[in-house]
Each structure stands twice: as C-alpha cells, then as structure tokens.
Sequence to fold (628 residues):
Amino acid sequence: MDFVTMNILDSAMVSICREMGITLMKTSYSTIFNEALDFTCGLADMNGDMIAVADFCPAQIGGMPLLVQSCLKEIPISDIHEGDIILHNDPYRGGLHTPEHTFFKPIFVEGEIMGFAVAIGHIAEVGGMAPGGFCGEATEIFQEGVRIPPVKIVKKGEDNVEVWKLLLANVRTPRVNYGDLKALIAAVDLGEKQMQGIFAKYGKAKVKETVADLLLYSEKRMRAELEMIPDGIYSFDDYVESDGVESDKNHLIHVDVHKNGGSIVMDYHGTSPQAIGPINATLGVATSAAYNAVLHMTDPTIPRNSGCFRPIEVMAEPGSLLNVDFPAPSVGGNTETHPRIVGTILGAMSKALPDRVMAAEGGTHCNFVFGGVDADTKEYFACYDLEAVGWGGRSFADGNSAVDSINGNCRITPVEVYETRFPWLIESLALDTDSGGAGKHRGGLGYSKQMLCVNDVITCSQMTDRHLLAPWGLEGGKEGGCGATLVMKDGEDTWKTMREAYGKASTSRFNNVAIRRGDRVLLRMPGGGGYGDPAERDPDAVLSDLKDGYISKEAAKKYYGYKEA
Amino acid sequence: MKFSANGYYIESYQKCPNCGVLMYANSEEDRKKRVEHEDKTYCSQRCVDWSIAREKRRASAAG
Fold:
C-alpha cells in the first residue's frame, strides 16, 4: 500500500464531502438543512460502496451503502449516463424513511463511471397525512408521504420535468421543496466536479487502486479493534414505548451481539413483531444503527467507509420492529428507533467494554413538526423541528448536555431564526435541573422549550420517545429524566398532555393537533442516565453542579449525601 | 422483490428469513447464492447455518 497517497487521497475526498455539505447548507431553503444540518454528503465507488464521508449524521452515513446499492440493483450501470442524477426515498428498498431523500450522481471520467457523489437529506415536508413529515399515528406507508422509487430527477444534465411536477404537486411547500432539492443536487454536482479533478490529477488507475487499498486498510483496522474485545455473546433488551396507535404497549428490541475474532454480528432475532404505528425501522436503519454503535466503541481515527463496515453483520427478522414489511409505516424508525437500537447494543457491550460505552442517552430528536398558512404572508409553511437531549454518563466523564441524539449530528435551530421563519414566540429555552441521571458521572441534562402560538392556527404532530421509559443508568448510575410534550390552551392555566387535551392514544406520538393563537406548547427533552454509584461522585463536582443549577439541593442530599453548611 | 411484467410496480417482496435482506427476483447474482431450507428461501448457506445454530442455542438455553 502507498500509505502517503492513500492518506492524501482520503483527506482530499473527506474535504470534498465537507464542501458538498457547505454548498447544501448555504443554498437550501429549509431550516432543517441550513440551520439543523440534517444531511450527509459522501462518495461511493461504482459498486455503491461508500469510500469517503465527512462528519455528518450517523444514521445517514450507515445507511448510505445499502441505499445506493439498492438503487443500482434496479437501474443497471449501463443505463446510467453522464449528467444523470438519481433520486430515491423508498423505505422498503434500502431506504431509511420517507423524509430521507438520497441523490446520487455518476462521476464519469473519459466516458467511464468511476463512482458516485451522494447526498442524503431529510426533506421537511413530504406530503402525507401530517405537515412536517412525521405522522405520529400513521398505520401505513401511504400516510407517510410521497414514496419515490429510484428515478432520474435529472437526465443527462436536464431536469426530468415530469418527475419534478409529480413530486412538487404532492407536497405542501413546493417552492421550499424545490429549493431544497436543488440544494441537494448542487451538492452532488460539486462532488462530481471535484472528484473529476482528483481523477485528472492522479489518473483513473491510481485512484481506483488507492481507494481499494483505503477500504482494505479501514477493514483491517476495524478488525484489529474488534479483536481486542473479548469473544462472546452479549445480550440486552430495551424498549420503544408506544407506537402512537396502541396506547402504552411497549415494543421490545433484543440483541445478541456475537463477537468472534475480528468480526461482530448483531442478531436482532427475538425483537417484537412490527408495530401498527410508525415506530418500525427498516433494514437500512437496523444496519445503520449497528454500524453507529460499533463506531462509537472503536478507534475514531479509522477512516469511515464501507471497508470499516465489512466486519459488521446484521440479522433482522422480516416483519419485526427492525425490518418492517410493506405496507406498515416506518417514519419514526430512523429517528427514534435507531437510537434505541444503538443503546441496546451499547447496553449489551457494557459487559465487555465498560470503559467505552455510556449510560442511555435521551434517545429522541423530539420531531415536533408543524405546518399552516402564515397569517401575514398567506404562504403555507411547514417545519421539522428537532431538539437535543442529555447524553449518558461515562466511565470517565459526565454526559454532555443538550446534544443531538446519537444517530444525528444536528444543531438546534436558533430561537431568533425560529421566530423569524415560523409564527411562534419562544418564551423560554433552558436546561432542566435534575434531568441528568445521578451517578459518579452524571448524565447530561435535557432542556425545555416553551412556545406561544402567534398564528391563527398551526397544525402540529410529533413522533418522540422517552415520555414513559426513562434513559437507564449503568454501573449503579440512576435513570435520566423523561421528556414531555404539554399544551396550555389560551385562557387556561394548567399544562396538559396531548392525551389529556386532545384524547390522543399516546403522549409522545400524535398527529394533526390544532394549536391556536394564544395556546402554549412545552417541549421537554430527556436527560441522560448516570454512570457509577452517585456516592462516589467527586464532592467538588456536586458543589459545582449545585452552583450551576444542574442539580437541586434536594437531589444533592438524596443522591450525593450533600450536607448544607 | 418481484416487479410486475411491465416493471412499473412491485408485486411482492421477498426477504431472507435470517438476515432480512431483500432478495431481487431479477438478480442473477442473488439467485446463484439462494438456498432452500425447510420450505423457506434464504439468501445464502451462511444464513441457513446461522438459523440452525440459533435455534439450537435457544433450545439449549431453554432446556
């Protein structure tokens, strides 16, 4: 292997992926892209193997190979031409869920396909039963928005007008969707152009050979990491609460992690059957979650590409919660079930790698989605609002507070932008005292956001979790605080859950609630579980937490033996 | 996964009962690896072997 060229090429390709992301961020219309950064840009070889990606969303990173390869099974390489761009979002064919749109563009060099530039983005409004893309009470795929099989949205450099018209006719915000789809296209256009420059500099043969070496290098390094973990079968159970349709029925995720030499298999058999409501995950999600969990436990300097995924296998029974069959819904699987899967794997591996796993993190993106007609502009608006959670305490440190859940790498939309773009007034946004699970190392804090509706009506839906089942602690650490979604109607003075206020089956998954002018909504995000016995916490750390308001005096006395002077 | 004769829509989905991967009816590469075992179609012999081993393990744990 030519390590020098390999490192230079890897760095260059990662840099190209970052540039693609910056292009997407700066040219998109929706806050989900230009503020929250819910997208991933990568490069693939002609077989659909991922060869480079930058620091984007783990859910999309892990899903990328299967997404591209699924499309290549339907559109043969011989039918892909220079200037084509393929679009796909079908959950049943390698997809993650309907909002996640994958674009990929062939990179032609001297008439030969050498690979693909790929961009995956979460489109906020995809049609379907609820504005904002998350129908919390969906019972079939047809309620979850437009399902797109692999199609050419651009053919030989020209827009495929019929496809554009069909897509934009079936969403509530065609102007914004057009802008966002064009931004994703701009990203893959840039990726293609930059990679053609790489090929021009090094030559096709050298790049091909070096990329093959890079994937092999990543594979070898991952296998070496896995070799260091004691062989064995490690098992764990965790639950997804409710499915939005059947109230208070928990759904089991079971994993047997088979670690053998330089390989690891995530066997999810024993998991609950698929649910009626949209908490089901696709195989793409189950696979992506497995990769995500392993990447969290292993050397972060291993180049991220399909090579480092080769030692990882996934077994998810068809028709189970983690491999949904048509036509069952799956919109919540990619955001809510994915972190639960990762948590289950980390829980299993805590027995083998106690120093490399954390207690349960909040494990939800909140997914408070809404839409309506702006009273001033008369234009339809839609938004996918994601929020952050507390992460689990670790063997060496407290959990981080208010960080996007483990399968995302997204930012919270700033309050100022939120209020400018959407008819809400954010009355408060603050960390929640005592929301981090007590421990030698405390769980990270969640937070609450209180919003006042300043439009005639906003139609709201949500697909979140951790309202009932708290994030677990590890090694004697305590549970983190639960989340909540509460409403205080105009003229009233009590906060109610969606179940109490609107008769919904679940407090955490619902769709199409009418929030009216003067109503208030409170979104509370869960904290992370604690790690280790709270009695062993450094007293200075307890005092510091008290001073910062992270814990109350009552909690300090109860968990940490604090005594007032 | 089986497409309609005109290729415009999907008629049925078929997945490996062990690993869950989608099996494409029109893929020669997939077809060569498929294995029939106890009235089920698996994507590969590895999945058949893994399924058998899993059942044995569970039976042993339950016993």
Summary: The CA atoms of residues 18 and 51 of chain B lie 6 Å apart.
